[in-house]
Amino acid sequence: MDPTPSRKQLTHDRIVETAAGVMREAGFWGVGVADVMKRAGLTHGGFYAHFASRDALLCEAIAHAGRDSAARLAKSTAQRQARGASPLRALVDAYLSEGHLAASTQGCPVAALASEMPRQSAEVAAAATVRVRALVDAVGRTLPADAAEQASVVAAQLVGALQLARALGDNAEGRALLAATRRNVLAQFDTAPAR
User: Fold this and answer.
1) Alpha carbon distance 37, 47 (integer Å)
2) Count of structural domains within the chain
3) Fewest CB within 10 angstroms: 31, 69, 76, 121, which?
């Protein structure tokens, strides 16, 4: 069997990737079918050859954005751990980094979309909930065994801090908020000595 994706699959993937970027940039409500297709270099009429509905596209886009963000976070975390950071310090430093503050269109979809998630259709909300749980699980894997039940609390601090920092802007005030949150979370939960 030929592992090369078909032209239709490549087009489908391009639409999903474009929608994921638009969604992180403009929110769920900013994802219009016509705009996504235009940005993907396609005609509006071709949309329904790939998706049954806009909600179906949103579900795939949030999954794509989540996988992409998780892969970026894992890579950044691994690099920090290779330099001697504890798993939690590596994750907190990567998530609350100045780069993540500035990269809202490529960053965590949970931080970009959390306030809109409850107002989506059941289908889209369920897909978004998967991303929230994946983030909580990723945090949980970095916590000491006696603090694992705090994963949702830590994840909420990370997401909330990033959202507030973005609201303040990619400036000294936003960066200071991230730095204060990093210090606070690590003081509470990181039992490994800093290197």
Assistant:
1) 7
2) 1
3) 121
Whether 195 maps to a domain, the answer reads: no
CA angle 139, 162, 165 (to 5 degrees): 155
Which residues of the chain have a pLDDT value below 50? Answer: none
Is there a domain that residue 179 lies in? Answer: yes
Contact 48, 36 (CB under 8 A): no
Give the three-class secondary structure for 194: coil
How many residues appear in the chain? 195
- What would the two tokens of residue 121 be? 């259709």
Number of CB atoms found within 10 A of residue 29's CB:
10
Domain region containing 181: 7-189
Considering the domain boundaries, does residue 1 fall inside one? no
Each residue's pLDDT tens digit, 22-32? 999 999 998 99
